[in-house]
Amino acid sequence: MKIIQTTALMTEQVNQWQSTHKKIALVPTMGNLHAGHLALVENATILADRVVVSIFVNPLQFNDTKDYERYPRTLENDLRVLAPYNIAAVFTPSITEIYSQPLEQTTQVNVPILSDILEGAYRPGHFQGVTTIVAKLFNITQPKIALFGEKDYQQLLIIRRMVLDLAMPIIIKNIPTVRDSNGLALSSRNSYLSDQERVQAPFLFNTLSHIATKIKQGKQSFTHLEQESYNLLVNHGFQPDYVSIKTINLLDPSQEDHNFVVLGAAYLGKTRLIDNIPIQLG
Ligand code: PAF
User: Fold this and answer.
1) Are residues 154 and 84 both part of a single domain?
2) Model-level pTM greater than 0.90?
3) 109, 141, 175 — which closes off a domain?
């Protein structure tokens, strides 16, 4: 497993792999790796000849400087947990390596509308930062396949749209959310939770599951379900941003739809948690 820190060296390595027709897979991450990331890595090693894991805490996708500064950076441990896997390279560029210009002058990729709802409404500019860095990582590592977790459902859809709209010849593979045995979706941000908050945190998943059950039982007043769940979260000590039932394309659902996703985002103390559950009827 090579550790590559510059774009020039990564490009050189990619050129070499391509000269021998190796199929490259990219697993983009911001580090602080957990079992959710490792599920992406494991799938990547099955699907490609050469796996690149990128670790880069992307300043462009943080709409809050404090959130960026306190984001966990655990490179040494990340390299240790990656070591047993069949990874060809870990790409760990510095900020100046990725953004040679001040951030406000850098070219950005934007997927409109889809980036402005749900997470985008609460984190303005977030998805533009995500699509910009992901496009750049795609250009540097030239993957045939890139893997993303379903936990960031909206991010997954936005990246698929970017790839489609910009005719990027890359397959986007989604991998199911990995959860603790209590249902809590694994996230790097879970490390912020206090012991007591860790006990409370699975309630977000329980609430979304409750909505999923009601929809499957035929309870169709989505607005009522959203409001009821929002209130339940408040009563359990959360400060929700939203609880929302959408179609799988993140459109407002109608009576004719059969496939939904219920999404929620809520603060527990200072930690912002997000989760979602897909629902299939019939
Ligand atoms: O999901 C993440 O960890 C990040 O948004 C990503 C895709 C690595 C881009 O920085």
Assistant:
1) yes
2) yes
3) 175
Q: Please list every protein residue whose CB sits less than 6 Å from any atom of ligand 1.
A: 28-30, 58, 61, 130, 133-134, 152, 155
Q: Are residues 199 and 72 in the same domain?
A: no
Angle at alpha carbon of residue 122, lines to 120 and 127, rounded to 5°: 25
- Whole-number Cα distances in Å, 241 to 64, 164, 264: 16, 30, 8
Q: Identify which of 27, 30, 127, 188 to mutate to test ligand 1's pocket (most ligand atoms within 8 A of the CB).
A: 30
Phi-psi region of 21 (alpha: psi -120 to 50; beta: other; left: phi over 0): left
Structural domain boundaries enclosing 197: 193-275
**Closest residue by CA, ligand 1 atom 3:** 29
Residue 144, Cβ density class (10 Å: 0-12 exposed, 13-18 middle, ≥19 buried): middle
Tokens of 81: 């947990």
Same domain, 112 and 211: no
Catalytic status, residue 210: no
What are the pLDDT digits (tens) for 142-171?
Answer: 999 999 999 999 999 999 999 999 999 999
Q: Above 90 in pLDDT, residue 219?
A: no
Alpha carbon distance 81, 3 (integer Å):
14
User: What is the whole-number distance in angstroms between the Cα of residue 71 and the centre of ligand 1?
Assistant: 12
Chain segment 35-45, per-residue pLDDT in tens: 999 999 999 99
CATH number of the domain to which 238 belongs: 3.30.1300.10
